[in-house]
Hints:
Layout: E1 5-10, H1 18-29, E2 33-40, H2 47-50, H3 58-75, E3 80-84, H4 88-98, E4 103-108, H5 115-118, H6 121-126, E5 132-136, H7 140-144
Parallel strand pairs: 1-2, 1-4, 2-3, 4-5
Helix pairs in contact: 1-3
Amino acid sequence: MSEPAHVLVVAHQTAATEGLLSAVSERASRGPASFHLIVPRNPSGMHKVVDPEDTGDDEARSVLEDALPRLSQAAGGDVTGGLGDPEPLMAIHDAINLGNYDEIIVSTLPRRVSRWLKLDLVSKARALGLPVTHVEAADRESATTK
């Protein structure tokens, strides 16, 4: 029996949306896989301007706690998770440097409102040499109401 693929999942506001849950379920159905969710911290208020590196973890931790049981159910097994750097590309780099991943799933808000897509995160993640699946939320409302 072969070693399961190690899949890094990167999401914040879309971490428990139907699109991402479906993508994880679909990936799990293709063969053995373990999943690890990284939720980049999200600087808010004046932290965005003053010191985006010095940000509270409460919002990201809440997203993580809400998403992990749903993703575990979709994956058919335990999904692990953690908080990442506020910059999503750095969160991906950190995770890859600390872990052993075979592929990445990036979940974003819709194109018209996604900061991650404006930063070209998906293409930059692909440049790391791993297969990347991009999941785009259908609309902002479904991404923010769980």
